[in-house]
Specification:
The protein is an alpha+beta fold and 789 residues long. The chain is built from 18 helices and 41 strands. Strands 24-23-22-21-20-18-17-16-25 form a 9-stranded antiparallel sheet. The protein has a 7-stranded mixed sheet with strand order 1-2-15-14-13-12-11, covered by helices on one side. It has a 5-stranded antiparallel sheet with strand order 19-29-28-27-26, with no helix packed on it. The chain is globular.
Length: 789
Amino acid sequence: MQRITRVLGACVLVLSTTACERTAPPGRATIGPTDRYAAAARSIEEFIDHEMKDKALPALSIALVDGDSIVWSRGFGVENSEKGTPATAETVYRVGSVSKLFTDIGVMQLVEQGTLDLDAPVRRYLPEFAPGGDTTVTITLRQLMSHRSGLTREPPIGNYFVTDEPTLSNTVTSLNTVPLVYAPERTTKYSNAAIAVVGYVLEQTQSEAFAPYLKRTVLTPMGLTNANFERTPTIDAHLADGLMWTRHGRTFPAPEFQLGMSPAGSMYATMPELGQFLSVLFNGGAAPGGQILKRETLEQMWVPQFAPPGATNGFGLGFAVTTFKGHRAVRHGGAIYGFATELLALPDERLGVAVSTSKDFANSVAERIAEHALAAALAARAGESIPTAAVTRSTTREEARAWAGRYGQGERSVELVARDTVLFMTPTRGGFRARLRWSGTDSLMTDDEGSYGTLVTRARNGGIVADRDTLARASVGANASVRDEWRGLIGEYGWDHNILYVYEQDGRMYALIEWLAHYPLTQVSADEFHFPEYGLYAGERLVFTRNAQGKATEVVAAEVRWQRRSIPGEDVDTYKTNPVRPVAELRTEALAATPPVEQGTFRDDDLVELTRLDPRIKLDVRYATDNNFLGTPVYSQARAFLQRPAAEATVRAQMALAKKGYGLMIHDGYRPWYVTKIFWDATPEKDHLYVADPSQGSRHNRGCAVDLTLYELATGRPVQMVGLYDEASDRSWPDYPGGTTQQRMLREILRDAMENEGFTVYDAEWWHFDYKDWREYRIGNTTFEALGR
């Protein structure tokens, strides 16, 4: 699948030499490099090593191609995490939207034969095809293959999100229920649905299922022996583990279901196989199994469609056409759950590169590695010095905090947020949050898995210049004016593997889709909103369905039906779980157990009671009541202790917050070890992320962790955060993107006050803060009663 508005791709570097074999022999962990490209390979390896460490990529493989030959191919990282299998040249990846090129080539074979006509109405081949039920609309294969058909990005059935693996027939038929987003040829509208239709034309006209047809007519003749649109035992033997990640920091294994729109993104391949594909292109369509396409047909595919004569950029037939260092280039990217691929080639130079990595939305990394590989290959061929890939360096904690803030106004604004030593930039107009790093002495640059190259510098007025746009520093306030009609829409929709977040920001509704892409929405009516005219879902709409209480039960977003998700703490005041075993039984075992023995030198305990240091600090110690996640008391007293340095730092945070009208409300401080053991043993294993492992002890046990929230000094009422205290859900993560501006801003106010005094927030709990000196204290198991004495 393709995620990003401009084409991103997999990389295969094609270089001309006769020293290597035409195709990669099966089982070769590494190919080459040949002498000519040895220095280039070393430079590329060094860059890959840096990027894998910096972006935490699990596995990556690359193939360099020169004419007929793969001159270098190898893998990096780990193919299978459970077995510890290293990635090699033969590691298999899901190549996402690179698949489209092979589907389009299958069509062009039939165009050469006169069986298909690129400019005939698709209804000639699919009489039942009528988008939106309109039988008068005329859409052609040329429009579909160059993303100018106006079709929705995703079909209602068989789209990128649903897991039921419907047939290609059902997928394409579902398009008859939704209208076009744009009139054909009006604008470029990237569409996976469009290529599903292209594949279905092959299936119907050739009376053969799409996957075996493509395997027989395109993949096998090209010499792509194991590549396939269907999983096979050979593919499974070396398929890399795909990794997903969310904007708020959670990672999980990528789902593996097959897409109903298989022709648009379901191909599996190794990088040498994509390298072999490039060799076929460079040889004018000649392949081990015969002539795949005529040279003039390939040239036709590399001409920008619906563009002025002589245009050098745009979508051709499948391929994205562009230039690279003055050379004509063709490329395509691929993004599918857990994988990112880049394919980049210079047809006139007969050089190319293919790169794939097993991390979701890492297309920017794959693209940069491909481009550096191609630049290094050009230099090696010319006998010039190999260029050094540019790398950025991290900001310090102080630098990140100095740059943090809001800049600009309205949609022409950005938010810079400091997270320890990391600085992120989020554009209000939508798109992707990107990490900023130093690219020189005074310039920051976006550089992470999915973004690279936007420069940010200081402006003379104390503002910033972001991508040549000067933005003044703006004040940030907690905007409480959320329209009542929106409150029932805010929430999560969809599936565990892909959640749609609907939230309010600065008095406007937003959608965060595909984990990382956020867009401001335009309201059309009470229950209908539109995506902006740019981005992944340009021009598409969201239509909500509400229940009698006004709460949305589902939303049809971009023609995909998303059910509202049940969030454990959404409609209750206290999050509850069902203990695995009776708490009374667990208490008896915990009191009889012994904390782990620790070696080393530690400070003496100096636990002090927080409320005695500042009377404005309130207590809400729920573990002394039945109003907690276990539904039963675990403390006999409602008290909160911390080691003296941590306690005094908490008081300083309270003093700073009082100037803003807030006080601290403590849920928990020092926690005897036996209580940690009760929590662990009572909590279902799936939620162990939210409780400490007693075999390691916790920072609470050392008296250096505090659970807390804010309350209003004027009213005494606790504030409303995005999620509940002790809630075992994504809403507990400190960077969870949902909720309202006010809720997120209050979360930031609390975090900022605590971090200023030496605390660090726990990754999965917005309320949990650890003091910097926690390692200097022993695990404690003294009861509150003993402390009181």
